[in-house]
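Quick one before lunch.
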Amino acid sequence: MFNSDCFNINEKGNLTIGGYDTTEIAAEFGTPVYVMDEETVRKNCRLYKQSIDNYYGGNGLPLYASKALSCKEMCRIAASEGLGLDVVSGGELYTAMEAGFPADKIYFHGNSKTREEIEYAVDCKIGCFVVDNIDELILLNKICDEKGTKQDIMLRLKPGIDAHTHDFIRTGQIDSKFGFAIETGEADQAVKKALEYKNLNLVGVHCHIGSQIFEVEPFELAAQVMINFMADMKEKYHVVLSRLNLGGGFGIKYIPENKPIKYDKYMEKVSETVRKACEERGLDLPYILLEPGRSLVGEAGITLYRICSVKTIPGVRTYVLTDGGMGDNPRYALYQAEYDAVIANKASEERTVKVTIGGRYCESGDLIQENLMIQQPETGDLLAVFGTGAYNYSMASNYNRVPRPPIVMITDGKPRVIVRRETYADIVNCDI
Ligand SMILES: *Cc1c(COP(=O)(O)O)cnc(C)c1O
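Model of the pyridoxal-5'-phosphate complex:
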């Protein structure tokens, strides 16, 4: 009935998460509130880890793409499950370091890393930079030279795979701001340059072909292209690229129509492709990295909102207006992301009313979803939006000076705050 089996309906007809009544969470912690089920997050982590063990002899590592939800407790959970971490900014790196994340398992992404961020990451002794462009390559080498260190790097490549996803979140093809193109010879030149730099140690290549992908084929295609490139570079420059990072982008169930693949299927199929391609090209099997973000945390989270008003415009539509909106979830406003929602205190009732869910922010586009069937809404009801564990808190803003909601995690059937609610004092904290 719901997108994850951490949700249920109790005898009072209320929605539960991890066995805990959502109306009690709202009463204890206020609204809006993000709620995560820890068990579901950990299960997802294990599925990726086990898939590498089962299908690839353990010769690899899933990295949690922390941009999906970066906070100290998520870093601790990823660390305790034995995952590595993908960070894309100094802030995400700082979060990881504060959480005690093992630095050698951190990979630093990003297409516009600043000098300060690069210096900070080198000082943290992170495991690997994923270098996006020539300017970064030059700067990183210079910084490592100044600091007298040598840094492991991978190169981010564009394998030219179109993973049939929304233009805004498509990143594999040539017209992308991320990475070096293979087709144009740009990637080849980057390898050549990287090998000339004595403070850089080129260990492998990376690609990330998009997001919310439901097919395995694009990943297999990408793996094939990448292995061919690695073999070409071995022939041309006698360099052994021992790590292959295939990125993330594994689709999750936002709405009933979404049909995600069980996450271990990716590794099952991709490892076959990799084995075959390596055999054909005479390469040793590379160490494989995966970078799931959304699929580790997305389905494990909901957002609870209080309905502040219901506005029916005859012959037009019914607005259900909540105490949150684009400040805590900008994804519908940004790219019409799909979400499912129910009235948490009426979860067992029929969904009979078509509504548009709007927020409290001063923008007409401040919507969470349009034309969604939900239970008969009334002011004071509790609205639960599913699939908000990824790219909600991490994309939240203080627009209209609204404090960001807390994250409550259900652990062993009990709620605990892992990120506290912002206060008005937090809002003016940086004001002079
Ligand atoms: C965003 C991103 C990911 C994670 O993508 P998901 O769709 O959340 O799995 C992984 N790797 C890179 C380089 C990314 O930019």
